[in-house]
């Protein structure tokens, strides 16, 4: 499959999303020709933040988390933002989606705090990941292996996990997503 033919799902809570961790993959993948769906907990506008504290851009979701399913997509993206992921990691629809992607052998890309969702979805055991350092203990306690790198790709357990630490790593993160869709 080529990026031009790929269907990508990005999932978020409606507020507290780190702006560039959502907008860069969303826009870069669309510019490369992928069909990108932004699914949120509600159809209210998605309010992003910069550095977890300054007001960012507001985006309109395309769908509800409860209305999308892994079978319709090729790859899942989970942006960070402390408040975003702290809420989405306990959302039953988000957890089920992550589990469906993994069980169907489809790639999941999570940046910064995004990997927290995978901890709650019980998918991180046996995986090596490089999320932000603030959740390193959560990764380790869930049976994963934390590394401090710009990008980590792990194909263990039948599905690909792509992780990056922070917005400074977005070039590597987005390129790895494109490569996974190539």
Automatic annotation (TrEMBL):
Residues 7-177 form the DJ-1/PfpI domain. It holds the Pfam family DJ-1_PfpI. The keyword Transferase applies. InterPro entries: C56_PfpI-like (IPR006286), Class_I_gatase-like (IPR029062), DJ-1/PfpI (IPR002818). Keywords: Glutamine amidotransferase, Transferase. One of its GO terms (molecular function) is transferase activity. Belongs to the peptidase C56 family. This is Type 1 glutamine amidotransferase.
């Amino acid at each position: 499959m080529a990026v031009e033919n790929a269907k990508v799902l990005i999932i978020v809570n409606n507020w507290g999303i780190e702006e560039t961790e959502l907008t860069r993959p969303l826009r870069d993948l669309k510019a490369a020709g992928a069909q990108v769906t932004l699914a949120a907990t509600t159809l209210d506008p998605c309010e992003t933040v910069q550095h977890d504290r300054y007001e960012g851009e507001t985006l309109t979701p395309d769908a509800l988390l409860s209305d999308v399913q892994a079978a319709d997509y090729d790859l899942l993206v989970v942006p960070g933002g402390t408040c975003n992921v702290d809420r989405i990691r306990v959302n039953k629809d988000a957890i089920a989606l992550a589990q469906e992607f993994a069980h169907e052998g489809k790639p999941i890309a999570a940046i910064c705090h995004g990997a927290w969702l995978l901890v709650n979805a019980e998918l991180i055991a046996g995986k090596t990941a490089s999320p932000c350092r603030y959740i390193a203990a959560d990764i380790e306690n869930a049976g994963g292996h934390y590394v401090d790198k710009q990008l980590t790709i792990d194909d263990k357990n039948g599905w690909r996990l792509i992780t990056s630490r922070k917005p400074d790593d977005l070039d590597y993160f987005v390129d790895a997503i494109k490569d996974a869709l190539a």
